Amino acid sequence: MEFPAALFPSYFGAGPPQEEGGPAPLAGWGEHGQVLEGGPGRRQVQPAFVPRRGATGERWEAADAAAVPVLLPRAGCWIPSPAPQDILYRSGLCKKLRAGKSRAILDFTRQLGHFFVDHPEDAFGSLGRLLHKNFYLGNSKLQRPARSSTIRMTALVEDIDRLEARRGCPRQHLASRLRWFSHLCRDWLFEVPLGLLADCLHEELMQQWSNLLFDDSLTGGALAWLPPEDRGTPVGCLVHPGGQAMNHLYFQDVVLEELPRTRGAPAQFELSGRIQQVAAARVDGQDFVGVRSDYHCGVWRLLGKRGAVPTPLQVIHTDVPASCLTVSPHLPGELSVCTQSGTVYLWSVETGLQQLRHDPQTMFFRDHSPWRWSDFTAHPRVLSCADRTGLQCLDARAPKRCHFDLFKVGEEAGCQQGERVVLPMYLGRAHPSQYLVTTQFSVYVLDERLPLVPVLKWAHMMKAPPLFAHLMPGKPGRSHKVLLGASRTQELLLLQYRGGSQSACQLAGTPQKLHSIAGCLQHLPTQLPHRHHLLQQRLTAPAAGLAATLQEDGLHKSMLIFQLSEAGDVFCQRLTHNAAQPPAPPSRDEATTAPGSSPLFEVPASSPQGLAGEEEEEEEQTFYLSNLEVIIDDEEEDMGTSAPLEEAELLQERCANPQPSPAVPSPAAALQYRRWLRALSRACKEPPGHTWSPSLSQRRLFTRKDLEGPVGPSSLQRQMRQRLRQTMKEGGLIQHWAPLALQPPPLPQALEPAGGLDPLSARLTAAWAGDWEQWWEERTSFSVAKRQQALRERRRRQKRAQGRRSLSASFTSSLTYQSELSELSDTGPSVLSPGRPPLLSQEASPPAGSPLVHSPATSAAPDEALLSSQSLRCRGIPKERRKTLRDYLSVWAEGPPEPPEPLGSQASQLCIPSSQSQLSSASQPRRKRPRMGF
Amino acid sequence: SSNEHKLNFRKSKEACLSFIQDALLQKEWKRAAEFLTCYIESLEKDYSREHIGPSEMIWRTGAEILWHHSQSSMKEFNCFMEQMKTLGVKRYLKVCLEHVFHLLCNGQIDEAYQNLSLAESWRFGEQTAIQDKEMKLIQAYRGLLDYYSWSKQKNILLENSEDGFSDSAVEQEMHGYFRKAAVNLKEIIKIPGVWDIFVKCYVDLLEFYGDHNEARQVLNEYAYNSKFPANPNAHVYLYQFLKRQREPKKSLISALKILHDIVPSHELMIDFNTMLQKSKKRKKRRLGLEVIFAALDYAGWKENVKAWSCLARQVKQIVISEKHLDWIKQEWNSRKDWWPAFHFSRYLAKRNWRENKSLSYEKALVAGILLGKGCKYFKYVSHQGCKAQLKRFRMLKKFVNRHNPVYLRISG
């Protein structure tokens, strides 16, 4: 193999990196790097120079507006992997705590709680069975003989519920009963000792969190494209994982037409673990496909003939999770495997495993990551092995003796501080001795004949480290194409380079950003909000693999790029080669494209970095527009010229453009989108219920008692209906419900406990109206201390009824004044004025902006309805006498036995069905003040 | 409040940068330029302490846009770069270098030279290590351009002398260029690095003026100093120099031996092998076999007819003479478990036969000797060859059949 006669000049230092680290936006632009004499004009008078970066490259243009789905979603909904909000603690208190530091706080207690709820058998199994008889879960009081050996758990459960409801409240006081119980039981109640369990859980949480920050198990990608053996047929095979747990391996034949389409049913294999990586190589006309899951690696063989069935060859089991599996491009049935314990194996299907190295330490300096990687080199017996600090090459025949350093994170390659190897890849199909190494900042091309000195280096500026790479070798004289893909941000970058044998390596053309999966969201038909949310969640799932193929028929060259997401979707886009090189791009693109169309900005909602980072990251999604205005302001202030202003306006206009689409998808693509959406909605019939907070389980929301429906309509309702029917029959008009009020008020009956109906219906209606939280708050605050206080108050008042009269009178007079005001503004009198729960404290009043807040769920108590000035007026009682009557009635109302359930629940007996009352409440924006103490 | 204002300002700056980045990645230079004009604002209140400041970003993006923008001209680019030089003191030299590179790539050698001279005279306080490196590079590139001027004068002079008259002024000028070039080039190649063009030019200068010792020293230093990277070109240059100097075979072989040790797959290994095969010493012929076997280990040599014919010739020689079969045996030992699959599979036999008959001939010979006449590769190729009635393939078949016992001795 030829070696370039002269290389680009570069310094060579040794030791740790000197340059200060840190992500540098735009660091990859505007630099030639170095120049070298070369090129065609050697015999000319003047020497001709070529740059290391900046030479012209091939022009590839996207054929469609966005990526198009290749496979239809299969049945069984995708289970999203944990998002930051699932495992992080988020509350006001917490925000205050971490205002200074940017550290994330894991929500440990919630997760432990989940474990207890989800796995009660494992958590409390044996003692639960033992104590079964001693725990009583009913509501009624315990009888005497049982009381000595049984505790009533209902109160405890209520306490816990209350705690749950007040989660994050700074003034949260622990119920002493709970503290007492936990103090008593924590040593013996748990099946697994609590400390041990907590340790394990914490470890797992930390693991999950670090995975969210950077998940290296996906390195290499789980998508492979097996091109057709003879170039004539446009049928290749796509190897991809699928299924709910991504543990099914599919070999799907795909016909490459304008839009690739599947052909026939895929060959399917069920594996025992989540597929993390699919690697493939073609040797001697056969495709070898290596599949890595955490503890198992397998290899399949696919003969190059069409319609061949993939045959599984061998499976190995590892004790430690495997971090890498690569397939030899040189010898059939050879693979290399690395495990997280630092062991590198050469795996031959015929001879089995050969351990090449075992070293839990990293190679060049200490790094905590157990990630290891290995790949093949130009010599079939020499393997590279990598960790985060660099790459070494080992000879499999004498791995201890024969090795050399290929790449080091250090001054040798001009690295930055903190730079780490993310993905090494053998570029053998482009040039037998070339190697690609990506780090979180840069991408390097190495030549193993000149180790340690990268022949090419470029800052890729990607927002997430490139975990996937794919090479498309160019024919002699044409550039090689390298695709880099990131997982979390779904970024895809196309680079071109050339050289390596006759001439030195050069980057050709500018890097190009390709469509990501999430980018097609704007081209999909409009969805209902919650569907849109689900769709967005699915489409912004981290990428899990990358594959591509070059297609040539005659002059027409195109490139097909497949991208796999963690949800199992495979999307595809086509780039076409533009050989003509038009001088200027079509103006249409520039005129209609707006910023923000780029998925590069759209940090997916589940971005963990946003949480790990600073506080303001949360607003990241919204600031674009407003802050461009800031620039505009500055320009106005500082310069006072009109020219930049125009530009700023232009800018603003673009930002405001809601549909930032470079073009519309082709009809075929649009059809494919629709088919995909239909299949998706069929596959996921049941949308996951709680979109707001995944921690709320229905079990805790509604007890069995709550769910018990009412036996039948109450007598009042029956009366109402009867009257309604009668009036309809007569063709009459119900002007007021007043005649009803003239009937003897069914007070004693109304004050009886209303059963389970009302809390539930009230809660549901509140939830429907959107202020469920507030209802809950009211209910809980009501139920503990308030009730006691209210009872005490009432008893005191009963005793001093006489002395209180004047005070009560003054109070009611103010009430009258209020109600008169409301009468003035109301369009029509309404007896059934839905108010807020009568025992509600004043400061908990809902915001004024929401008319539906005072929902009928918490409507007026009957005595309030009786006492309201409206109702009294309706009955023809003169104003001056109303007060006396009210006083009288209030005393009388205190007479009957006190209701065990909150008074709010009685309202619905007076209330006609909620839709009507909602209407009335909507038409009555002003509320009446609730009476204190009722 | 001012703090909030700062924060907002920073955010809008970042947003603007994102827009620029997005436009650049989509090759929308016009849009990027529009955003860049907004971003220039950020220079006014530069609160950032990031290691790449706004001035550098403006330089980078601006340069990139001007390279590609359909309406930009070289004049505009020069103007922009001049402004960028004054923008950041820390990056002055870097920007100068990049400017020069761009001029060079566009064939504006004289302007580039002027810029280099200007940059060389730049002084600002104490130089950092990076600036020091950049300054050295600037000097080296100036030396390189001086070398090209020298080379031009030299050609004029040579042409003139062919015509029979000499021009002392041109000669003087040439010597002047030599001095300037030599001083600068000599400096940079002392520092560890990859300096292929600089070394080549410097050696050319020295050789022209007959300073062979200095040239040899420079090349030896470049090839064997352990602080320098293991650059195969350094050894190649030394080898070529030695060849030009008509050095004895021995020193050539020792130079190539070292190259073989560091890059067994280098293209010069063919020359090395032929050189060794011709040698009368057994040890060297042995080394020759080793070299060619090692070269063929590499995927890049898999289909190299020259290499295969070298191996075939040497193996044939050994088999015919029946001496040193143990050499083959030793080489074969470490390869017999993977060469058959790597080189001699049936698939490859078919493909080689289809694509390159002479390659398949050489390979079949080697395969027949190393693996016997039952070997798939040999069988297929010899069968096809006989079917196609090619004489040499029939000879090949006969030869392998006659020497089949060798295979047993090699593999045994």
TrEMBL record, chain B:
| TM annotation in the entry | none
Which Pfam families does the record cross-reference, listed alphabetically?
A: TAF1_subA
Cite the InterPro entries for this sequence.
SL1/TIF-IB_Component (IPR052669), TAF1A (IPR039495)
Question: One biological process GO term for this chain?
Answer: transcription by RNA polymerase I
Q: Name one GO cellular component term.
A: RNA polymerase I transcription regulator complex
This chain belongs to the protein called: TAF1A polymerase
Q: Tell me the organism.
A: Sylvia atricapilla (blackcap)
Q: Which gene encodes it?
A: Taf1a
